Amino acid sequence: MISGGRIFTIPLLHKFSKIDLTPYTIEVVVDSAIADGVVPLNVKATVSFAVASNINGRERASTRILKMTTNTDMLTDVASNIIEGHLRDSIATMTPEQVMMDKDGLVARMINVCKSDLENIGLEITTMNIADVDDHRLKGVDEPELYIALLKRVQTANAETKARKARADALANSTEENENRRAEIEVRALENELEQLLAQTQVRVKEEIQREKVGVAQAMQSAKANVSGMQSKIEAEKQRIEMLKQKFEADIVTPAIATKERNILEAEQEAARVVGKAQGEIDELKETIQILAKGGEESKQTYLIENFERLIGPFAETLGFFPVDNISVITGAEGKHDPISAIHPNAIASEKNDLIREVIANALGQNDEHYEDDEEE
Question: pTM (2 decimals)?
């Protein structure tokens, strides 16, 4: 067997035949294929096949289908019957949903299953495609939509949902891009504005620094002028204070010192006079005591009577602090302490009573006058 090239044959001795290697395309229609779940389906598949490309396959083809290669209808019928049988078997192991959703899986399974049978006769599948899957409507069934129709509706709805989602995603992406562009434009505008603000701020800072320098110089000059003025005022104030101090010494201190010395001199003179007077009284009192000591008891009583007013006066003056209406005098004459009789007093008691009454009256009178003088003052 030769594939391509040339061969020399001797008539009557050699016999030869040609096999067409051109691929064939057929449409395989499977009516009422029962899928898993006892759902009848109509499946339409498009299959391309040809003579095997390897040497072993071609040898089998030359042995088994050599005559069929010249009869296309016969060859396609054989291949169609083989593919239809295996397609029914494959559909029987799948659910309608799998047949609808996983057509590629069905095709891969079909190619694997048909491979061995087709290779046995020298054929091989080049391509296969599930063109359509539909419900097989049995007699007496009037439902407008059956299983596959409902699945197709679900697929259509899913496709529409995906399309809407895709459009929504595209719109969202477009909106997002627009927002990103707008945000980018705004960011650039804000950055430009920020740069302008920074430039303006730097200019203002420099201006403020310049103003600050000028202001500091002016403030320094003003401060120096103020310091000079304050120093002049302080110096003038010092001179005024010194003048007032001298005036104060001349008007107040010097006269006060003179008055102080004069008062001290007068006080010393008054003290000398008082001391001299007191010393005279002391000397006189000493002589009086000596005389009384020499005169005995009668001279003492006579002294007391004569000086009773002067002796009792300080005591009687204190009685003015105690307001009274009547006074009772108790005497100790003759060693008795009975009340003095106002009807028949003795001469000594009568004299004592008169003296006491007069002294007390005088003391009370003087005390009242003293109080009146104090109140007037």
Answer: 0.39
